[in-house]
Amino acid sequence: MGYVTTKDGVEIFFKDWGPKDAQPIVFHHGWPLSSDDWDTQMLYFLAEGYRVVASDRRGHGRSAQVSEGHDMDHYAADVSAVVEHLDLTNAVHIGHSTGGGQVARYVARFGVPQGRVAKAVLVASVPPIMLKTEAYPGGLPVEVFDGLRAALAANRAQFYIDLASGPFYGFNREGAKVSQGVIDNWWRQGMVGSAKAHYEGIKAFSETDQTEDLKAMTVPTLVLQGDDDQIVPHENASALQAKLLPDATLKVYPGFPHGMLTTHADVVNPDILAFIKG
């Protein structure tokens, strides 16, 4: 574990586990979480012989709670600072939800131009854009995101309990196997971060049009999502990603929720491993 300071003076926390000469896998977490959300995957791929790296987004987890820079451009530049500090090459970048947007912006702006990326994986990710626009009429109306902002500002602690215990993991579905530990861990990660970063991050993950980022991701990219994702509707996310990416492999899991990396790690992890090895 360590910290790197970005060009604009922000301390970014990162984990770096495993053999330094092994192929690196870099994990990008969702909103409003931290690199801890990848613990299951990091342990799994570490056991498979990979070097595993994950950082906390600015304003999230153990990274600095700065006032500015809560947008995809800064998110990607912060990742690049970690990657360059560790001099990672031939890396596989895996992003979940907002982290998928971060992967797309990083790979397009830094990874491909610098020749540091081998493959990418987008899991239940936000690109090309969550917001309903003229170009993407299937998106969600801005009132949905205004509602998220209002709930966060009014009572962030309760809002995070409600998200984790309901739609994020599909725990609101009949017959769901609810884990209080998973709910508590989601809440813990969220509450460690900055309310301002999380509030402004809603605009970043919902209004950033990443069409061109996807088109610039020329590396092989695996796109994964559940068709019961209640956070990022798959018809406007993974289905469109697969059309825009130059080299995409799409897999949609029947009935899986947004947080399927936790609830269905036994299925998703081996699929990602097969893609990396393939």
Give an account of the 3D structure.
The chain has 278 residues and is of the alpha/beta class. The protein has one domain (2-277): Alpha/Beta hydrolase fold, catalytic domain (Rossmann fold). It is 44% helix and 17% strand. It is built from ten helices and eight strands. The chain has helices at 39-47, 72-86, 98-114, 142-165, 180-192, 195-207, 211-216, 238-244, 260-263, 265-277, and strands spanning 2-5, 11-17, 24-28, 51-55, 91-96, 117-123, 221-226, 248-253. It has an eight-stranded mixed sheet with strand order 1-2-4-3-5-6-7-8, with helices on both faces. Helix 2 packs across helix 3 (98-114), helix 4 packs across helix 5 (180-192) and helix 4 (142-165) packs across helix 6. It is globular, with a radius of gyration of 17 Å. The mean pLDDT is 98. It comes from Ancylobacter dichloromethanicus. One of its GO terms (molecular function) is catalytic activity. This is Chloroperoxidase. Pfam families: Abhydrolase_1. Belongs to the AB hydrolase superfamily. Bacterial non-heme haloperoxidase / perhydrolase family.
